[in-house]
Please model this.
Amino acid sequence: MSTPVIRGSSRADLLAMPAVLLGFHPTDSCVVLGFEGSMVAFCARLDLDWFVTHFDQVADQIVSASSQVPGCRFALIGFGDPDLASLSVVEMAGVVGQSRTVDLLVTDGRTYWSLVDGLEPQEFTFDTSSVAAQAVYEGVCISADRAGAVARVETSDPAPEELVTSSRAVVASMSDQETMELLADLVSSAEALPAARALLLAVLVEDEDRMAAVLTQLTRATSEVAWINLAAARRVAPPESEANVLALLGMASWLSGHGAAHTSCLEQLQRIAPGHAVGSLVEMVHRDGIPPRRWDE
Model:
């Protein structure tokens, strides 16, 4: 599945870009766009008060992410209360270096202004930007807020115990080769998995070796389909399967560019299975700002 190319040429387009990249409209946020030349290499969203609550952690993450991008330059955008948004953006400019910023913008959702050139506020509406028009044409899904963007990786409706027992019996009756073949079919299925098959996938990855097999199969090219199927498994997963499914879903989220989902999976894992082996890998790529292309190298 190819990733659509979205092009922008104005500040209004730059302001619209975070919603496309994040998959939701950011509010009360400081957004960091890291550029390699004219291409966006990474996009990070922070709470506006990041510099009060997590200064060192955030600074380390942004510096690590930018170290992966040759000649990285930054556009910093504050969404929300103008005073706090301006302060948040200025603090981030201090972290990345004023000389490496291409623009510092603030918007309250109706108007925007630059902290660089001091021009009068300009009107801004996401729907009228060329970036929004391109996103609609390409079928890019943009949720109204973060909750909508992460719903598919947070919704949990575990299957009834009798169905879980039945699924485990099916798996137990199969040879190792048969389980691996079934696992590969389920992860790569181009058709939406019905609940029964999604449950089979969740039960299969309870086994550490089978979980590792899925991990080694994940690539940037296969991750979007795997993400859809693992999200289906996450919904019906029993408690015993939940951590392993979330860990794989977090990796698939990272590889496929579902940034909000990646962060959500990491947060959930930290609550239910701190120290999880694959979860630690999910945390490392997030903390160090490692680009997904490194996985395939």
Remarks:
- The first helix runs from residue 11 to 22.
- DSSP finds 15 helices and six strands in the chain.
- The mean pLDDT is 92.
